[in-house]
Amino acid sequence: MDASDALVKVLREEGPRVLAILVRQLGDFPVAEDALSEATIAALGAWPGSGIPDNPRAWLTVVARRKALDFLRRESTRTDKETVAFRWGTQGATDQMEDVIDAMETESQLRDDMLRLIFTCCHPALSREAQVALALRTLARLEVDAIARAFLVPEATMAKRLVRARSKIATAHIPYAIPSDAELPDRLAAVLAVVYLIATEAHAPSGGNAVARVDLEVEAVRLARLLVELMPDEPEALSLLALLLFTSARTPARSDAQGHVVTLADQDRGRWNREAIAEGSRWLSMAVILSGGTARPYQLQAHLAAAHSTATSWSETDWDQIIELYDLLGSVGTNPVVALNRAVAVTERNGPEHGLAALEAIVGLERSHLWHAALADNLRRLGRTAEAAGELETAASLGAHRGRTTSAPVPSPRREGRTRLTDSGAAGVLYRFRRSSSHQTQIPTSEITLERRSR
Amino acid sequence: MALYVALCYYDRDRYWDEPPETEFSPEYTEFARRATEAGVMRGGEALHPVTMSTTITVSGGKGGDLMVTDGPYAEAKEVLAGYFVLETADLDEAIAWAAQIPAAWRGKIELRPIAPHHA
């Protein structure tokens, strides 16, 4: 890691913490965000010469508060901003360095502020799109252009989305608060869903030829880690981290030397990141203990991913366990995608005729390329090649328009956190790559792009 | 504190002023009482059906041609049926109150922050 990498790392590490402090102290999300941006620019200018300060958090907080104060003073001459300036005034804040250092928070205060920030960014009054954008900008500190690239929208569109979201937080008075115990389960589910969605996006580029995809997988793991750090007793947070570690462990094996996608069945398991798998297993074990035996969706999905990650080969996979887990997932929320993934496992355990029957029993996936690809696979194995070819063609034509279904995964709020969780689980990965291997011209994967970037 | 208007929408074929929706009238009264006691209520009214509406437009700027038409501005299945003005600390509190208004389960409620007006 060179000096500028270290600098960026510190800025991204401390950024959300400084922002969490600023929002509470200033009582104004957009002003805090702008102030932090300016402080970050100042740091990028000063630190390469002076070196990273001993307490970068204090440095950033001091500078950001000065910027905010300047801004609010300027604005307070305009009548419509008087209220904000007043709010600032009542905080008793000054721009004296000593006061600011006094105002640095204890770890537990900081933890609460971080939780406030996270729950605000994932508030149900914001669209899922806005939540994801805020999570990546505000919590992961990605630049707007990088987020825009990751979601294949123009930078101006992403910038507008973020401005609108922040302005709604301020105007509609979305509280900067940790939800009450009664609200917590739903609100936590929304937070986890945002991180899960980012990870899903990492596996399923929405379409088009992304030139420089941001490594959303790494970002998702980072965010999941942050959630575990802040909420170490929430089994679903631990399970989500475990799940993401298991799936990201396979990234090195997901493409071959030519950059073609390799299916889970064919992956060189020696290239899997054993360290990540071991870490995932540890988090999952803790989640099992914490959940006291009631497995919720992420835990089940983590178990599924673990079953694949610990199998020595595709044929040695414990299909009994996998089918059992899908049955449990299916009972947690009725979801045709769970049924699809289960059917894939049935094919492997009981043979293509059983797999085909299981697939044909599924209703509601007629528009899913994954379902048609699975049908094609079973038909091919049964020697019904003409039918298989037809299904493959359907799958390809639907897959080409996949952006519509995967890039706008914003179902009604009712569904969030429950059924949505399972939409592209561990075995979703199975099939996604299985399909694309037969259509290698499509789907540039994040892995390929990364390889390019690292050169 | 923040001001919100809770806009209550009903299906125009199942409007609040006809059975079975009239069953919920006592619940509205009860909500208004509780919200007033809590200091949250800042006003509210129920609206007659959109068949009673008159839409007016002045074209060509102030003092221009006045056009008066029968009916609502936009034909929609769901129509504005009434509103409450609520004053709460934040959106979560406003949501908690709005969820107790019968329109929340008999129709829909849109919570809109009220913009402060400048003298």
Which descriptors would you attach to this protein?
heterodimer; A: 455 residues; mainly alpha; 22 helices; 0% strand; elongated; disordered C terminus; B: 119 residues; alpha+beta; four-stranded antiparallel β-sheet; 21% helix
What is this entry, summarized?
The complex is a heterodimer of chains A (455) and B (119). Chain A has helices spanning 3-26, 29-50, 56-76, 82-90, 97-103, 107-121, 128-139, 144-150, 155-171, 184-203, 216-230, 235-249, 274-291, 297-310, 319-332, 336-350, 352-360, 369-381, 385-400, 403-406, 426-437, 446-454.
In the predicted model, the low-confidence regions of chain B spanning at least 5 consecutive residues are none
Global geometry of chain B: globular
Instruction: Indicate the overall shape of chain A.
Output: elongated
Biggest interface in this structure? A-B, 13 and 12 residues
Structural class of chain B: alpha+beta
Q: Can you count the helices of chain B?
A: 3
Q: Summarize the biggest pleated sheet of chain B.
A: 4 strands, antiparallel
List segments of chain A where confidence is low: pLDDT < 50 over at least 5 consecutive residues: 81-95, 207-212, 401-455
Strand content of chain B: 35-45%
Strands of chain B, total number: 6
Q: How do the SSEs of chain A run, as a string of H and E?
A: HHHHHHHHHHHHHHHHHHHHHH
Determine the fraction of residues in helical runs of chain B and give it as a percent range. Answer: 10-25%
Q: What proportion of the residues of chain A form beta strands (DSSP E)?
A: under 5%
Q: How far apart are the first and last residues' alpha carbons of chain B, in Å?
A: 20 Å
Report the major sheet of chain A: none
Count of DSSP strands of chain A = 0
Average per-residue pLDDT of chain A, rounded, comes to 78
